[in-house]
Amino acid sequence: MTIGGFVSAANLSCQSTLTGNQTLRCGFLNNSVKTNALAFGGCESMGHSLRIPHTKAIRLRPRKGVSPLQVVCMDFPRPELENTVNFLEAAYLSSSLRASARPSKPLTVVIAGAGLAGLSTAKYLADAGHKPILLESRDVLGGKVAAWKDDDGDWYETGLHIFFGAYPNVQNLFGELGIDDRLQWKEHSMIFAMPNKPGEFSRFDFPEVLPAPLNGIWAILKNNEMLTWPDKVKFAIGLLPAMLGGQAYVEAQDGLTVKEWMRKQGVPDCVTDEVFVAMSKALNFINPDELSMQCILIALNRFLQEKNGSKMAFLDGNPPERLCMPIVDHIQSLGGEVRLNSRIQKIELNNDGTVKSFLLNNGNMIEGDAYVFATPVDILKLLLPENWKEIPYFQRLKKLVGVPVINVHIWFDRKLKNTYDHLLFSRSPLLSVYADMSVTCKEYYNPNQSMLELVFAPAEEWISRSDSDIIDATMNELARLFPDEISTDQSKAKIVKYHVVKTPRSVYKIVPDCEPCRPLQRSPIEGFYLAGDYTKQKYLASMEGAVLSGKLCAQAIVQDYELLIARGQTRLAQASVY
């Protein structure tokens, strides 16, 4: 049983029914209103901001006989995830690292990059009894989940981050840190805007009473607004080889784009246009004519095999403080170190081609028993030593390139009525997914003003455009989707302020034939390892992939303990000779 919540278009009050032993996880009631537009000044980082001048203060007074605006946010209970094979597998990997034999001499492991991959690597190495030294080039944790606070105290993020039930390593990580309650679970639905019916949405609702895959099949069969029955039948027939062929079949589809695979299987183009354009952009920020079908099949496999695989949660606040800091606290409590503003300038090598140290921009040299690069693949390629570039392991990285993405935040002068407490698929040519974060996220909650966080993708043609151009294009799309509330001239909802965060190279672009180029975490260079969602693991370019890559990297280093200790003793002996 679940808590049923929705945002009423009439008065934006959340209504809900609690049954059984459910608990209300967060509730807010606030009748106060700000009477002035929010002021905003300049800020650092990739985010850009704009102060919108107002000739008069914005006042929101209740009409006579109407109660003040009230919004009550209620989350759904945490789903049962612990009994899935993938969750148990992830839990076992975590426990094996915690239970590994305590080293007589802990390894000092220098890790570049404090995104989720680097944080995960450091966390699990510390669990295994070693000493990680985690170096982050910027003054903020999180990498692709970084966020910044503006002068008004409002947060803006690198991306709109969703935590799926099908993220077993991420879910285990939250449990290990004791922060499960920081995930705000939403109803088990996928909600799509209807561009051909402005202001309306189409839903895929997964019934709680049915197991997987029946709950997913039911959700598809019950939706008749986006797909006709003939379309559903043809799509189901097209999917049969994937359902029967298992993982081997899925991996074999890496050479085809989504569009090519759909046509090969006789699936109508309208299925791609109605569903998989939105899904492709949500998964990898590119369109179906570029995305490898392997990516879609992996996602469908997880969503259909696990009852709560497609169920979504939002973090209850900004990622650096609510997710990254608990990991840092854990690392430091076990003797590890995390250093910000520590940008690597060069990978210094020994005569035998192994790593001697990481040279920082400030001139400091950081030495260790092992070294990990947990940065995006594009940064690794920039810093790769010349005499490594001809090694096939590193040569294959040329095919892996980060995809550009833009994250847009718009604060409006009023509460938008046509919204949900959920992730929404825009089905717009320029926008991917979005959410009203003033409703979905506890820390960003505001009963009187909406803050839309939108993923602008594909972004390749827009990444060099001005922020004002991007905001204008975003408003045009929103006005087309929701003409009753938003207009391009702002005669309806007015922009109070905005932030545009550009990431020229985000997650790796999952195009056909890139799977063989993804490297294992253990490199051919003794003592040098990689972590990151682009490395070899089964969850591709995602937060789950980043966390899993860090665990696999830590596992490889623990397995190599004797080799690394012997290598260190040899270096010490050689140094004493000289």
Automatic annotation (TrEMBL):
Entry annotated with the keyword Chloroplast: yes
Keywords recorded for this protein, A-Z: Carotenoid biosynthesis, Chloroplast, Chromoplast, Membrane, Oxidoreductase, Plastid
This protein's GO CC annotations: chloroplast thylakoid; chromoplast; membrane
Chief location of this protein within or outside the cell: plastid
Pathway stated in the Swiss-Prot or TrEMBL entry: Carotenoid biosynthesis; lycopene biosynthesis
Record's keyword annotation contains ATP-binding: no
Cofactor(s) the protein requires to work: FAD
Annotated Pfam families: Amino_oxidase (PF01593)
Subunit relationships: Homotetramer.
Name the record gives this protein: Phytoene dehydrogenase
Organism of provenance: Quercus rubra
